[in-house]
Design brief:
The strands form 3 sheets. A 6-stranded mixed sheet has the order 9-10-11-12-14-13. A 5-stranded parallel sheet has the order 2-3-4-1-5, with helices on both faces. A 3-stranded antiparallel sheet has the order 6-8-7. The chain has 431 residues and is an alpha/beta fold. Helix 8 (181-197) crosses helix 15 (308-314) and helix 10 packs across helix 15. Strand 11, helix 17 and strand 12 form a beta-alpha-beta unit. It is globular and about 70 Å long. Helix content is 46%, strand content 18%. It folds into 3 domains: 2-156, P-loop containing nucleotide triphosphate hydrolases (Rossmann fold); 161-206, no CATH class; 207-429, no CATH class.
Length: 431
């Protein structure tokens, strides 16, 4: 009886601590995320709100602001003290003791709670309005659909967009003045910083040293969210895989080629390890498009990173990789615009082997073909990009063709196809 009394008191104290933390966090000012307004229309829905994304991108703050006008309970399951609780009814009891009137609950990093889905389902059946966050992509996979049986709405949060980056830098602009030399010069300087350092909020807002912060974050995610969570026996192997993928970002790969290069014991182990890295939002693998799903599975894929800052933090140099940095940036922005990887977004190779960086598919139609090229000044480079788009256009029956460049804007006709060259700045700002 005395033991239960001590545990009850401990649980209540934990809830009280997080109540104080919630109130402290809500008292501060933040950069409002672009998708916060659209997310608020789901607040009162009985669907479980699932906020997912990489660590340290602001999922907790996004969720707190989402519920700001509600009397809601808050717990963060990154706290190891929850690993000692075996009976989850103790958590409910403590929540009701501290928040006797509320029906709104926010659970942060819920994937750290064993059998979290059973607990969440139980609370929903009891009439609670739930918002949960997680740093594991499996929460958005088929597994989540099975565990929550369709009773959820999912929202992905990524590092700052360029618009959010500009807000954090307190840089204001007027659209009609965007091409004025003094305005454009400052914007291009900030865009170069964004291209190389990425958009993790703490780096941008607090202006801390990028390389050290992101190197530490990357390693923490790798060893805590991957090695520890999945009980990886050969941590050196998965670390070598991660480093190799960073060095070859935006490059093609096959599982067999990776297995041979890195001397893995089997393709199955390699696939498992890459899956763990993707689940933890460090990397994304993009399929080559084919109308046949079996072909998509068999052909090579391309690897991308969750933020360009990770590349600066872990790679030896970025100075020779500006086109790849631009391509990675465009890829993440497409995800931010709610295109789904290997559903709406693919890359493509024409029958004669010319690559198109991104194709956008809606239902059964190819809607857009996008090339990415940093420097289009040489005529042979410009022709190469246009030829790839022209060939793909004929094969995929798509007429919306564009090349996203660093700072070149024009329209051109190539073999009867109209191709738009769009500066990255205008594409990111949707001008």
């Amino acid at each position: 009886m005395i033991l239960f009394s001590i545990l009850d008191k401990m649980n209540k104290n934990i809830v009280l601590q997080y109540k104080a933390e919630k109130e402290n966090l809500l008292s501060k000012k933040y950069i409002l995320r672009e998708n916060l307004v659209s997310a608020k229309k789901f607040v009162d829905s009985d669907l479980i709100k699932v906020i997912i994304g990489p660590r340290r991108v602001g999922k907790s703050i996004f969720s707190l602001l989402l519920l700001k006008n509600k009397n809601f309970a808050y717990l963060n399951f990154d706290d190891e003290c929850f690993s000692k609780i075996e009976n989850y009814d103790e958590i409910i009891e403590s929540l009701c003791e501290v928040y006797p009137e509320t029906k709104y609950i926010l659970f942060d990093e819920v994937q750290n709670l064993e059998n979290w889905e059973l607990f969440v389902n139980k609370l929903q059946r009891r009439g609670y309005n739930l918002t949960i966050t997680g740093s594991n992509a499996k929460l958005l996979s088929h597994e989540l659909s099975t565990k929550l049986t369709g009773r959820y709405i999912a929202m992905e949060i990524f590092p700052f967009s360029f618009k959010e980056f500009l807000k954090a830098k307190e840089f204001k602009y007027v659209k009609k003045e965007i091409d004025l030399p003094e305005v454009k010069g400052k914007l291009m300087n900030l865009l170069d910083e964004y291209l190389k350092n990425g958009g993790f909020p703490e780096i941008v807002v607090k202006r801390i040293e990028t390389k050290k912060y992101l190197e530490t974050l990357f390693d923490a995610v790798l060893f805590k969210d991957v090695v520890k969570r999945y009980k990886v026996r050969f941590s050196r192997d998965i670390y070598n895989l991660a480093v190799y993928l960073i060095a070859n970002f935006c490059g093609e790969f096959t599982y067999t080629r990776l297995k041979n290069v890195l001397k893995f014991r089997s393709v199955k182990t390699l696939q498992d390890y890459l899956g763990y890295l993707e689940n933890s939002y460090l990397f994304f693998s993009l399929n080559r498009f084919s109308f046949k799903i079996s072909e998509q599975i068999k052909t090579s894929k391309k690897i991308y990173m969750a933020d360009n800052g990770f590349i600066l933090a872990k790679a030896f140099t970025v100075s020779q990789n500006l086109s790849k940095l631009l391509e990675n940036l465009v890829f993440i922005e497409l995800l931010r615009r709610e295109f789904k990887i290997n559903d709406n977004i693919f890359y493509y190779k024409t029958k004669n082997g010319r690559e198109v960086d991104f194709i956008i598919k809606e239902n059964f139609e190819i809607k857009k073909l996008i090339q990415v090229c940093y420097d289009i000044s040489r005529e042979e480079v410009k022709t190469r990009e246009m030829r790839a788009l022209s060939n793909a256009s004929a094969e995929l029956n798509c007429e919306d063709l564009s090349v996203i460049t660093w700072n070149y804007e024009a329209e051109a006709l190539f073999k009867g196809k109209k191709i738009k060259f769009i500066p990255l700045l205008k594409w990111l700002l949707r001008l």
